[in-house]
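Box 3.1 A note on notation
Throughout this textbook, protein chains are presented in two layers. The first layer is the amino acid sequence; the second is a token string describing backbone geometry. Keep the layers aligned when reading.
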Amino acid sequence: MNQAELPALAAVVQDLHHLAQAEKSSVQQLADVLLRDASLTSKVLRVGNSVYYNPAQEPIRTISRAIVLIGFDNVRLIGLSVSLIDGLLGRAPSEQLYELLARSFHAAVQARNIAGYVLTKNQEEVFIAALLYHLGALAFWGCAGEQADELAVALARPGINEDEVVREVLGTSFRHLTQGLVKSWNLGEIASLAHNTANHNDPAAFSVHLGARISEAALEGWDSPQMEALVQQMATFTGITPEEALQQVLDSADEAVKVAATFGASSLCRLIPSTDPELIRTQQEQRKARLLQPDLLVLQQSLQDLGMMVSKRADIGLILDSLFKGLYQGAGLERVMLAVLAEEQTRFKVKRAVGEKTERWVSEFLLPAEQPEQPHIFSYVLRHKEALWMGVPASYNLNELVTQPIRQWLGQGMFFIAPLMAGTRQIGVLYADSRISGRALKHEQFVAFQRFTQLTGRCLEALTRK
């Protein structure tokens, strides 16, 4: 990509970034970089003359005048942003590229405005690091040609794991591609740290990370559970109230639309989620309409099927099909997971899961079966052979068994959990929740959950007698 596809863009980005790191970068050095390309110069001047950057509307006709009026860092940021747009959209842009570039501009504005609460400088660096947060994917969708078409088709298949599909087609992940380009282009510490931060140790890097996640969550709706959690995180990080944090997020989205238009990328504006109250209300109504609803007919049919399998001694795959169909489509539980004892019964590993964003559970979830120093709810229910409804007053005394690693995997809120036994043999644990929508669980769902667990256990016991 550096040598064949993006050499001009890489050179400009590197030069502009090096100017930020040099202690005595001069106005002339910045002007020299931009003046190498007459088209880039004219676009920087046009952006510099925009109401967004120059509200007083003082005429700017030279790069040096732009630097004096709107600042060295702003001119450098404009140059880099315009170069990115020209370098990528100047080809035959795909819809994937448009969407990702829109998300990148949205993330950049969110990150810079978050950084404004916790940093006294480096806000432009945060903007650039967030803009380039998905650099690998941007570069791929911008210049991969037929391979991009192949990946687009593969990603359109329902129920796929996006990371796995990307690895199959590219031989690497977008994340590793980004890290490689960030290192190759020498984009500095903030851009590197942003991909490796899960804590608040570096406020600049965490601002980038948070801005990127907010831009992704916005696509799910401003009222989505993901956005709610990120707004709370932002409030804690910046020291403002959740209400103020949400307002800041919405204001930043509006600003991102202006920034994209100012940089000459008005085609991206339609892809940044609107903050119009009427539209948000419509989105909320549409979201409610999409929510998984219980289906009594499916529920009864699945129970009947399992009942028949007790005497028929059915295949394990058919048993699990009926179990998951009954709990997911029948009882309307949004996420269902079976974690079985594996590796000589030393660990819980996910055998099957269904629901939005549960793919990672199947490939990565691991939990030690016994942890004397930190007992947990999975081992507890298996040991006590008891189905539990966590998150209601009757189970508050067991809350400490929902350990931090479990919360990181499953989130917070109500859930059902029950032991799965084949007679006296311990198979694993069945888990279910409705955390996608955040809806409270219901008594009828818990009754169904218990009944399905018992019937599945009887089916498995019949198999062991086969």
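The radius of gyration is 26 Å. The chain has two domains: 7-286, 296-464.
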